[in-house]
Structure formats: structure tokens, C-alpha cells
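User: Modeling request: complex.
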Amino acid sequence: MSNLYLIRHGIAADRGTYQKDEQRPLTPEGDRKTRQVALTLKQLKIQFHCILSSPLVRARQTAEILQSTGLSSRLEILPALAPDGDIQQWLDWYGNHDKTRDKDWALVGHQPDLGNWAEYLIWQKSADVLIVKKAGIIGIKIPKQGMIQGNSRLFWLTAPKFLLGLNER
Amino acid sequence: MSNLYLIRHGIAADRGTYQKDEQRPLTPEGDRKTRQVALTLKQLKIQFHCILSSPLVRARQTAEILQSTGLSSRLEILPALAPDGDIQQWLDWYGNHDKTRDKDWALVGHQPDLGNWAEYLIWQKSADVLIVKKAGIIGIKIPKQGMIQGNSRLFWLTAPKFLLGLNER
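Assistant: Request completed. Predicted assembly structure:
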């Protein structure tokens, strides 16, 4: 088993203020909350073999915060994590990392894609039944060998407020 | 929408030490962790219209801790929450509370039943894909009107360690 953490980007600037959606950055609040989430993950002793991020600014910034908090020494951009990306590209990518299938990974991306990816890994179909807040986390246990899709299990789904609790200021 | 919290009982005494499974109480550690979970729910301002509990001692004790922490003024025993209980009995029970369908509820019971109930409410079938630790929580949003099974969404799934984080001692 290895753990896959699907992490949604933090709160980003409004659509209207940027010409291109992919350029929207985290707001100060988004930056702050994402740092708190990252710090809590660190305190929980979570470590990622690698952080894979959507190429969009708000996701990349989120991934960089996770990395700078010490959750991983590696960060790669995976174009398939952009909105409407194809999970098969990640499965192919992951298939080339078989030797590290006992490691934990983070995928940083967008909704509804992350929820749909998780649903596909767990039930082999997407149904929009997971509610994933900004800077929220989905935790999935994936089998070390064999098919991942349809053979993974959900061990965590949290909004920042349930993770940070009273720590949040 | 109302929120349904399915809460697994805390850590209980070993099977060998009690003649009847249903008499096994929480251990001191189970009691302590359950109280910490309850306190965190209280701090998150979660309130239940009613706590429904399995009749088994370890579940009743868990439900009583939730109640004594101030999460609800009402606690009822629902025999269907005992191991291998039929979710239809809860659906029937809940159908008689239509006027309170905007309220939040807690169901305290056992695994794999709670996970299976949750899966049935969300996907209309049970598949054992949710990992629910002792004193762990499943949070589901159920529609205010119409069919619940197949029309609910998952907003939270947590083990105590992810909820308590550094608060746990």
C-alpha cells in the first residue's frame, strides 16, 4: 500500500481580475490557510516522495508551499493535473514509477477533477459525490501491485477547517 | 441539506476478556481519545439534533461521551445500529422525522456497517472502500427532500489522528 494525497489548490483571486484563468494566484488568505494545512501535514509526519502539480499558478503556488514546508524535496509539473486533465496520463506516468510504489505521493490540482480522479481510483467511475474544499485533501490507499483503479480505498477526506480546528487563526 | 455524522465507537476491551461481545466497554485509552474527538467536534461548533446509538456497550459509551460533551441533548438507542443491522430500519426511522430533515444527526455504531451504510447512501451500493478507524467519523450531506440513498455526498472522512493532530496527548 502507498498513500496518495490529492490536494486542491488554496483560495485564489477572483476570475474577473485576471485575463487568463491559469494566471490567478492565491489570495493572501489562500496563502495563509494553505501554509497552515501544510504545517499540519508536516506535524502529522506526512512525507511525499514527490509532489505533482497542475501547471496553473494557483496550483503551483500551493505545491510550492507544500514543498517549502518540508513535505517533499521533489516537485514536478504534470500537465494532466490541469482542469479537465486525463487521469490515464497520471496512471501512465505512475506506471513508470513502479519501483517507488511503496512511497506516498501528492497530486495538487483542481475540482471537480481531483474528486473525479479519486472516485475513479476507488469505484472505477466518477460521480461527483466527494465535496472537496479549497486546500482540502483526499487521502487514498493504493495497492502496491496490480490495477489501481477500482482497487484503492479512501482513508481521508477533509476540508481545512476540520484539519486545522482550533489551530486556525 | 442536513449533515449526517457516522461515528465509530472508540477503542474497546479485547474480545477474550468478556463473555459477550456486546458487553465489551471502552478501554481507558478508548475513553480518552473519544473524549478528545468529542471535544474537538464541540470546538468546531458541531451540534446534533439527536445521537442514535447501537445498543452495544462500547457504542453506547461512545454516544454518552458525545452527549456529555454537549453535542446533543438527545440520545436514543437504535437496534439497527448493532453489527449487521439493516439500514432500511434507519431509513424508516428517519422517514418519520421529516420535519427535522434540516437538522444534523449522529449515528454511533460499528465497522464495516457504518462504512457500508455510508456507501449505500452515497453510491447506492456497499463496497468496503471506506477505511473508518475507531472513533473515526464519516460526514455525509443528505438531501432535505426525496431519496437519500444515492443522493448523498461525502464531505468528511477522518481518523482521530487527523482530527486531533497536535491536540492529542
